[in-house]
Specification:
The chain is α+β, with helices and mostly antiparallel strands. It is built from nine helices and four strands, in the order αααβααβααββαα. The radius of gyration is 28 Å and the shape is elongated. The relative contact order is 0.16. This is CAP domain-containing protein.
């Protein structure tokens, strides 16, 4: 009895069917069919959310050490642009601490308190005399480097950091709960000291508070835009595969039709979440 010869594996033929449209795969490369595209989508969303969960882990570092590192990072940025390093002022530090405690006590994270008190109110309470002042806020960062980098990526915060008029600063960092979430908040106040305080000259540049580049409630930011681009590509390929299903008349097969609709539905949901988050700002 003659033995049946086993078909020899042909790598070139295999790669051709997986990646190149031809009559061998009904012009639907296996790697680009809706089933595989759905697997890519799930893997991408898992990696995306996993990255966010890690980045949004509450900071457990020593607040005092973090404050020192932030000041060092700020002064590095100033020196690199030819500006004088900021000197820590105890009155500004007290004001920053009072603002920090007020945010935790009243459960808010903003440049204005629920009663409308801004940074100047906390500064004035300490008796600090200035011609101009500024405030930067940050929340949820795991390192001083990432915090300073985020501030420098924001024009309003960067303006405060590099303002040549500011010569003194006060920084407060603390762990607490805001919005039912444990987090680390940083407050930095800037000041240009004077012998006589002029209220009308008080200014603020950091009107937008800064949070980490990624969180589970905001899955898309500038640094994560590549995720959005890849999702768009996958979504487009799923649509193209649907067109090929109709051309090959496989759309009448219930199995193929159900799998395609499931893949398209999942991708649509992912895109909607990303598009909505793209329009959100802190």
């Amino acid at each position: 009895m003659a033995k049946k010869k086993s078909k020899k594996f042909n790598l070139r033929d295999f790669l051709h069917k997986v990646f190149i449209p031809s009559h061998k795969n009904s012009h639907r490369p296996y790697a680009l069919r809706h089933l595989m595209l759905s697997i890519y989508s799930v893997a991408l969303i898992i990696s995306h959310l996993s990255f966010g969960a890690v980045q949004y882990t509450p900071v457990t570092a020593n607040p005092d050490e973090l404050a020192k590192d932030v000041l060092a990072g700020i002064n590095t940025e100033r020196r690199e642009t030819g500006r004088q390093a900021l000197v820590e002022n105890n009155l500004l530090k007290d004001a920053a601490q009072n603002k920090l405690k007020d945010m935790f006590r009243k459960n808010y994270w903003d440049h204005s308190s629920p009663t409308g008190v801004k940074a100047w109110g906390f500064i004035n309470e300490t008796g600090y005399s200035y011609t101009s002042a500024g405030e930067n806020l940050a929340r949820g960062f795991i390192s001083a480097d990432s915090m300073v980098e985020a501030w420098m990526d924001s024009e309003t915060h960067k303006k405060n950091i590099l303002d040549e008029n500011f010569t003194e600063t006060g920084i407060a960092v603390g762990n607490g709960v805001i919005g039912n979430k444990e987090t680390t908040v940083a407050v930095q106040l800037f000041g240009a000291p004077s012998a006589a305080f002029t209220q009308s000259s008080a200014i603020v540049a950091g009107e937008k508070s800064v949070s980490p580049n990624f969180s589970l409630s905001r899955p898309l930011t500038g640094s994560n835009t590549p995720y959005f681009v890849v999702y768009m590509l996958i979504f487009s390929l799923i649509l193209f595969d649907g067109i090929m299903l109709r051309i090959n008349k496989n759309h009448k097969d219930r199995k193929h039709l159900f799998a395609f609709r499931t893949s398209l539905g999942l991708s649509t949901v992912f895109l909607l979440v990303l598009c909505i988050s793209l329009t959100q700002t802190w």
